[in-house]
Structure formats: structure tokens, C-alpha cells
Amino acid sequence: MISGLLTKYKHVIIYGFSLAILLFLMHWLQLRLIVFNHALEIYIGAIALIFTALGIWLALKLTKPKVQVQIIEQIIEKTNAAEAPEIFKANESILTELGISKRELEVLQLMATGLSNQEIALKLFVSLNTIKTHTSKVFEKLDVKRRTQAIEKAKRLNIIP
Amino acid sequence: MISGLLTKYKHVIIYGFSLAILLFLMHWLQLRLIVFNHALEIYIGAIALIFTALGIWLALKLTKPKVQVQIIEQIIEKTNAAEAPEIFKANESILTELGISKRELEVLQLMATGLSNQEIALKLFVSLNTIKTHTSKVFEKLDVKRRTQAIEKAKRLNIIP
DNA sequence: GGTAAAATCACCCAAAAGTATGACTAAAAA
DNA sequence: TTTTTAGTCATACTTTTGGGTGATTTTACC
User: Is residue A123 within 8 Å of A64, Cβ to Cβ?
Assistant: First the structure.
């Protein structure tokens, strides 16, 4: 029961603790700074900045998956509507046939634009290792050895524009 | 409507509540540790909350337009590729303009087929170092950093099919 | 509730790619 | 004839990429 709750809201707890630590640090800072009345503005400005960053980070962490799934679907739908419906119908069937997931397709698309793994990682808010895993799986599924081959083959198979 | 928002931003709300609880805990801690100015703490807590919210709002506002921009770009590329397969004349003038030599173009073309530098070297009966030199110069002339970028740009410029 | 697939991340190692510099040769341009 | 340019190659170094393995966490589905 309790352990279930702990694992379920582990992130909340972690965030809570880091917040607590942050607040405690600020408290300590305040003790040092309160002596100078003029430092208060700086202190509050720093808090505003830190918490704005925290908010941005939180929002990105939370909305990231939903938003990106939407991207892919919209692209597929729009390209379907825009031109040749038969060519890009093979698209999806090939994807399922090869077993390429949405996330992998996303990575593949970014790869084709010339981004490095590191840049893709930054763009998708995940670690470099994760992107490496995705690329490796894509190579395996496409039966290629390098990213350049993957791009070439994916274009030939109409997986990517 | 409201229930939809509740489910959509469930996490945000949960984090918000945990934040509030933490602030309360901090307040209590403070009472136990040091006698201090209460009003200031609350004031700062309020600022933290407000700016966290601001950060979340900012991030949401900023990430959504970006997504739409990406979609538009992809559609444009798609329609361009579909409508203009006949243009293949600017090719040479661009090459001379960029100062890309015959050999470099050759390497670039093989690169675009997914070959490694070593494979290109074998195919052209030259050493690996020579290919590296060529690729480096091509990257410099195309103003890119990686071969994937070079391929993407070269295709966009109609240098290679 | 349990299971399976998808997604995330880490660590290590090896190979490939890329950077920088310098040198040599042959052919073309001045 | 001298100079320039394209092409060739090397050495040393850094960065990126890719392979292999294993682990945890989400998500989806039954």
C-alpha cells in the first residue's frame, strides 16, 4: 500500500525534497543577506529566476510526451491530405511491418535533418544514451549499419520525406 | 471543461499541492529552529509559487508554437519535393559558386548513398586520409559540420539527386 | 493485477568521423 | 616560367557514432 504510493509518486517526493533543500538553502542565504537591506531585491530576483526555471522545466517534463505524439500524427495526416494517398499509406504499413515505433521515427526524422545524436537528445529532452538506443534499434530494424544508410533507405521506403 | 483541465493538468496540481505542503513544513521548521520574520517567508513563498506558475505558463506558450512551425516546415518541404522534380539546372552554377571540385562532388555523391569514408576510399582507389580531406573541404564549402548535414544541404541545393 | 512493449538511461568499448597541419605532385593558369 | 589549384597522403588528436549489455520506468493491453 504505502510502498505502492511511494513508487507511484516517487517523482513528486523527489521534487518535493529538492524543493525543500532549495528553500533551506535560501533560508540560509537570507540569514547572510538580510543584514544588508539592499540585498533583498537581489535575493527575491534570484528566487523568481530559479522558480521560473523550475516551472519551465516542470512544464516541459510534463507536456513533452503528449505534444510530440501529436506532432507525428499531424504530419502524417497532413501529408496524407496534401498529396498521393497511396504512397504514404504504404508508409504506415511499412513502419508497422518493420516494427518502428513513433519515437524511433521521430529520431529518424531528426537524424535526416543532419542533427547529431547530442542535438537530438537536447531537442527531445532526453539523454544522449537514449538517442543512441533509438538509433541502434532503427538501424537494426532497417538493416543498415550507419545513419547515412538509414536516411537513404528510409527515404527510399517513403518512411521519411 | 473543468474536469478536462483537471485531468490534463493533474500533475501540475499535484506538484502545486506538494509545494504548498512543503512550504508549510518549512514554516513549521523555521518556528522550531529560529525565531524569524514570518511575513517575509510567506512573501517569498508566494513569489516562488507565482514564478513557478509563470514558468509553466511560459514554457507552454513557447513550446506549442514551435511545434506548429515544425509542421509547417515539413509540409513545405513535402510539397516542394512533390512539385519540382524537373529543375536540375542550377546544379553547376552552384557548384562553381561554392567552389566544389569534381572529385569533391564525387565523394559527396558516394557519401549520400550511405558509404563510409573507408568504402569510398576503396571505391575510388585512394587512401582513407584523402577521402577525409575531401569530406572536410566539402563540409567547409557547404558550411556544415557533419556528413548528414552535407547530404541534406546538397540535396536541398540540387547538387545531388 | 499481471504482462508485454516502448521508452528511458547508464557504462564500457571499439570504430568511424572529423580537425588541424604539413607535405608532395601534376596540371592548369598567370 | 612561376604561381596556383586540385588531388593525393600522412600523422596526431578529438569527437561522434555504433555495438553490447543490463536496468528501470511508463504505457498499453488483456
Answer: no
Cell of B160: 545531388
CB contact under 8 A, B112 and A152: yes
pLDDT at B51: 73
Size of interface A-B (CB pairs under 8 A): 151
Helix count and strand count (H, E) for chain B: 8, 0
pLDDT in tens, A81-93: 444 344 344 467 7
Residues A161/B78, Cβ–Cβ less than 8 Å:
yes
Band (pLDDT 50/70/90 cuts) for residue B112 is very high
Q: Which of A121-125, A153-157, B67-71 has the lowest mean pLDDT?
A: B67-71
- Give the integer Cα–Cα distance in Å for B150 and B58: 35
Residue–nucleotide distance: A5 CA to D27 C1' (Å): 18
Q: What is the pTM of this model?
A: 0.60
**What 8-state DSSP symbol labels residue A12?**
H
Q: How far does Cα A90 stand from its chain's mean position? A: 28
